[in-house]
Write a structure and sequence with these properties.
Layout: H1 2-20, E1 23-29, H2 36-53, E2 59-60, E3 63-71, H3 76-88, E4 94-96, H4 101-114, E5 117-120, E6 137-139, H5 144-155, E7 160-167, H6 170-184, E8 190-196, H7 204-214, E9 220-226, H8 233-238, E10 247-252, H9 256-259, E11 269-272, H10 282-295, H11 301-320, H12 325-332, E12 336-339, E13 342-346, E14 353-354, E15 357-363, E16 372-379
Parallel strand pairs: 1-3, 1-4, 4-5, 5-6, 7-8, 7-9, 9-10, 10-11
Antiparallel strand pairs: 2-3, 11-15, 12-13, 13-14, 15-16
Helix pairs in contact: 2-11, 3-4, 5-6, 11-12
Length: about 400
């Protein structure tokens, strides 16, 4: 009888140990709302990244990965509460997300309070790894400065005049601030800055102000647009014939659905984070093949980012040898890992992932339903002096 009791106790302890050995990761992101397409891509990419980095086992050092999903509905208060729930009630080892920069900013203090890692993907605002950063925050997504510096390299030239249009919240304002700063290093000042609410559908008034600021200038005139989600400002402003003032469009890359509207702008130049045909490396080859096989479509803008985050999480836990937060921080600071975009590196000073960007020129092919960002050249980590903004 004593042997049976002892055996039962050992068995119970083994089961308890096995249960606590699982690696819990929370993906907290805006599954519903205006950025739903971004969210789905990010989650698909995250799961593919975990699969790729674990060789299909979904285990790290014999411990099973448990994924917990939570929907912020793009509300900052939801993001904050759900992250508290994930760290507190669910006892996750780390969290990944969110989609929106505004939601991310509400979540940052929670990571510091609970002393747990928040791996930010795909929110972009500079302030996430800048003014509002804390040591528990890492980001695989590019930041506004990376968009801005890459765009400045792509657009700068002699006698170039640039005006901007962006959404009036953290993503847009941080993006333009970084773009303005990057242009200044090349001796270019912005002619005009225009901000509009995120739900704007009528761009008549902003466009008229931009036209009035640029119409009498000589030289090359470009309207640089940063916009996420719906609204389609490029097409709506194009319908107002900015060409009569010699104004051309410029912008950043986007998801395939949004690139459909870029077909109106053959020859448009800019810089992008990702387009599936641009990188040339084994990880991207795997992603493209698997995505076509499973979904019948190429991987999109945020799919690559999600995959980068998934691989980073696995590599960090492997390197740390555990999910202990301090061990993870030590492992992740300066960590290099391979992604669909090639090698990324977490900068020790602010935990921002340094990464390649792509200078593109839009090509239109009647047999392809979206505009094609054709590679002009890769912009490597060494070419882009990204400011450290958390000091």
């Amino acid at each position: 009888m004593k042997r049976l009791i002892a055996a039962s106790m050992v068995s119970a302890l083994a089961l308890a140990s096995a249960a606590t050995a699982d690696i819990k990761i929370a993906h907290i992101y805006g599954k519903t709302g205006p950025f739903e397409a971004y969210a789905k891509q990010s989650h698909d990419g995250l799961m593919l990244g975990l699969e790729y980095a674990t060789g299909g086992t979904m285990e790290i050092n014999g411990e099973k990965i448990i994924m917990i999903e939570k929907d912020t509905q793009l509300k900052p208060e939801n993001g904050k509460a759900l992250l508290e729930e994930a760290y507190g009630d669910d006892e996750v080892d780390l969290a990944i997300g969110p989609v929106s920069s505004g939601v991310a900013l509400a979540m940052l203090p929670v990571a510091e309070e609970y002393e747990k890692i928040l791996l930010v993907e795909p929110a972009v605002a500079d302030s996430i790894t800048g003014a509002n950063w804390n040591r528990y925050i890492f980001r695989t997504s590019r930041n506004s400065s990376q968009d801005a510096v890459a765009s400045a390299i792509a657009l700068a030239g002699d006698n170039v005049h640039i005006a901007t249009l962006a959404q009036d919240y953290a993503f847009g304002r941080d993006g333009i601030a970084a773009f303005r700063e990057a242009l200044a290093t090349k001796g270019i000042s912005l002619v005009h800055e225009e901000y509009a609410p995120t739900d704007t559908t009528d761009f008549t008034a902003p466009a008229e102000r931009i036209f009035n600021a640029m119409k009498d200038l000589d030289g090359t005139k470009k309207l640089f647009v940063i916009w996420a989600g719906g609204g389609n400002p490029l097409s709506k402003i194009n319908a107002m014939d900015p060409g009569r003032f010699g104004i051309e469009f410029a912008g950043v890359g986007n998801i395939l659905a949004a690139l459909k509207s870029y077909k109106e702008f053959p020859g448009m130049v800019g810089a992008t984070y990702y387009y599936y045909e641009l990188p040339d490396n084994p990880v991207n080859d795997w992603l493209v093949k698997e995505h076509f096989d499973r979904f019948g479509t190429p991987p999109d803008f945020f799919t690559a980012g999600g995959m980068a985050a998934g691989i980073a999480a696995v590599e960090a836990i492997k390197k740390a040898g555990s999910t202990d937060t301090e061990a993870l921080i030590t492992a992740m600071e300066g960590m290099e890992w391979e992604t669909p975009k090639g090698t990324m590196q977490f900068r020790p000073e602010d935990h921002q992932a340094m990464q390649t960007m792509y200078h593109f020129k839009i090509r239109v092919d009647d047999d392809v339903e979206w505009a094609i960002p054709e590679l002009v050249r890769e912009l490597t980590i060494d070419e882009m002096p990204i400011p450290i903004r958390n000091q």
